[in-house]
Amino acid sequence: MISALLGLASALGLGVADFMARFSARSLGAPLAYGGVLVVGAVATTAWVIATDPPLVWSPFGCAMAVAHGLAVATRCMLL
Predict the structure, then answer these.
(1) Helix or strand run (H / E) with residue 12
(2) Which of these, 27, 28, 29, 42, lies nearest to 74 by C-alpha position?
(3) How far from the centroid of its chain's Cα atoms is residue 63's Cα?
(4) Which of 40, 8, 47 is nearest to 24 (CA)?
(5) Model pTM above 0.85
(6) How far, CA to CA in Å, does 42 sit from each of 2, 29, 36, 74, 76?
(7) pLDDT > 70: what percent of the chain?
(8) Beta-carbon count within 10 A of 33 CB
């Protein structure tokens, strides 16, 4: 049941993001919208790391996941 709710929340979030991206890309232009998404994401992630103070563990798996996450974010922003 929880997986269905998480899937629904993910689909809803991506749908809202696509709806908002339509207007922002038209008014700002694609490169500026792409840069804005990256800057807001970086600032929000940095604030979250500073606020929660999680232990940062540098492992090969963690670094591979960080690279995969960065590639996924870049791909999603280009598809914006």
Answers:
(1) helix 2-28
(2) 42
(3) 17
(4) 40
(5) no
(6) 29, 20, 10, 12, 14
(7) 99
(8) 19
